[in-house]
Amino acid sequence: MCGRAACTLAPKTLRQKFAYTRKRADKQTDAKSSSHPSDSPCQDVQEPAFVDEGCKYQQSYNTTPKQYLPVLLQTKDGHREFRVMQWGLVPSWHKGSDPSTFSLSMFNARLDGIADKASFRTPLKRGQRCVVVMDGFFEWQVLPSKRRQPYFVYFKDSGNDSRCGQDPEHVEGSKASIRPLTIAGIYDTWTPTSKDDDGSGRGSESSSFKQGLPAGASLETFTIITVPAAQSLTWLHDRMPAVLETSADVDAWLDHGTVPAHEALSRLVSAETALSWHPVGKQVGNIRSAGADCIVEVDPVPVEEKQRAKLASGMAAWLKTGSCSPSKKTSSKRRSAHSASQASDGVSPSEPLAKVIKPLPVTMADDEIIVLSD
């Protein structure tokens, strides 16, 4: 599954990295006869537009469902554009004036169950396929000790590899050089109804307060498609996002006018060799942590666990040999020497202390107790 992501690229950088070649047929004048126009295919290299109504996109190293990410889609006329959408699909058929009342969590969509759910099946039929763009995603490995170790997963690329193993300052300064991760997704547009679910007709102003939307405004949301984990990642989790490894994969997924849904879905496979990963710090588990340190590589075994392992190893060695440590042997020698000293003074080491101490003579004077010295 995928429930935490990093997306830090600026809109301008995203547009440049996802420039595309758009084929179109323009009417051009035939060289032999100016009166007979001919259809000639032309290719234009264009940058997709970036649509962010309300400026909801916040570049972050720790983005969660219910927050906003840029997704790439293709319009019916063949143009591509980025739209900033909320992560977690709210289906168009949801009734009411507040999208937060939709109780199901749909930030992931299993590939093998898409055809069984109307929430996913309907957008697919409408050609509402999108590409979710991010730096990478986080996944947690459950260790035998039940402790969870987070990992950051991203495209295997020289820019990514050189960036993520460095300090936070270097991570932030070199983000423009990375290859963004591209993942297959589905989107839908929810529009508030004129009445609430209870039929009270109170309107849709609650949506404005809870979702940051103008009263009556629609909300675009998306979900990430997941597939069984690649063999190289089954140790981390049994599922993973449907990664679009090549530009041809991205084109086929976006081209809903030419590539039907069933064919596009059949092309979604587990990425076996395209990804890299490394362990990161536990601060990524806190949604308030959104800095570059969230993706800096760390030692997966904490210092305290190393200390416990060293202690356990020493205890095992002691139990195996059954011998005391040098410090304990020294203490034993000191106790033996002390016992010998007591015996030379006529005191048995095992004799009670009360029998050894002799009471000193005292005399009373004016209600005072005076201790006389020997």
Could you please describe the fold and organization of this structure?
The chain contains 10 helices and 17 strands. A 5-stranded antiparallel β-sheet has the order 5-1-10-11-15, covered by helices on one side. Strands 6-7-13-12-9 form a 5-stranded mixed β-barrel. A two-stranded antiparallel ribbon has the order 2-3. The C terminus is likely disordered.
Summarize the helices and strands and which ones pair or pack.
Layout: E1 5-7, H1 11-17, E2 20-29, E3 37-46, E4 49-51, E5 60-63, E6 68-74, E7 80-87, E8 108-110, H2 118-125, E9 129-134, E10 136-142, E11 148-155, H3 158-164, H4 168-173, E12 181-190, H5 205-211, E13 219-228, E14 239-241, H6 247-254, H7 261-266, E15 275-279, H8 303-321, H9 326-344, H10 353-356, E16 362-365, E17 368-371
Parallel strand pairs: 4-7, 7-13, 8-13
Antiparallel strand pairs: 1-5, 1-10, 2-3, 6-7, 6-9, 9-12, 10-11, 11-15, 12-13, 13-14, 16-17
